[in-house]
Amino acid sequence: MRQPGVIALCLLGTAFLAGCQGATDAEVQRAVKDVNVIDESNLNDIMLTIGDPNEAVAYFQGALQKDPSRIDFKRGLARSLIRAGKANEAAQVWEQVAGSAAGTPEDKVMLADAQIRSNQWDKAKATLNSVPPTHETFDRYRLEAMIADSEKNWKKADSFYEIASGLTTKPGNVYNNWGFSKLTRKDYPGAERLFIQALTYDPTLFTAKNNLMMSRAAQRKYDLPVVEMTQTERAELLYTAALAAIKQGDISVGKGLLQQAVDTHPQHFEAAARSLAALDSNVKM
């Protein structure tokens, strides 16, 4: 996939060297190194985006064995470990990066992110407290909001969520997280509004659709929200509403919603069918 780019770089290097036949060996080596750095940077970017996470981890580990001083390789390894679901290991690498002479405030923010992912909330709070207040980024305030949530400091959480949502062009996930925070506080109308906001920015966000259904069902609003959804999603949301209705004692409503979920799903909906059968069995008893 990368051959055209590599060939172009090789041709560029060949042409450059052909035009500098009188150059010293040191100058030739520098020219070759410059070409290799360009290609290496492209490969680093590919590994951080579309590459398989475990392959990316292996790539950056190998690169660091050859050149342990490269801070960009360490950052690449830490990011790849996060993508591979290895947050504990990522936190250790980010700690090295953030504590180095080349460390930046953003490295500390990424360290805090890894610490939260690995359930090290106290460490994450301490890390964020060490970030200069002038470093105002989306990730910083997103994490600040999550920590405030974990401490049930709702006023601070709302403030940080609001700031974070204004620092990105894609705030769908922020509004979803904020809405879930409201849901845990049992502020169901507030949660419903935030989930709707999340879906205006990202209509494909199924988590927000399901959370929206839970916030509505908690208010005994069991009809489906007017949002974009596939047939499978419709069945899943009906199932969510059914379980909420049954939990709240609205058994007949829940049974009807379960039947709708089974009928709506384009394939066999095992979970809903099993719940419906169990409900029928209990009712008959």
UniProtKB/TrEMBL annotation:
Q: Which Pfam families match?
A: TPR_19
User: What's the protein name?
Assistant: Tetratricopeptide repeat protein
Query: Origin organism of this chain?
Result: Pseudogemmobacter faecipullorum
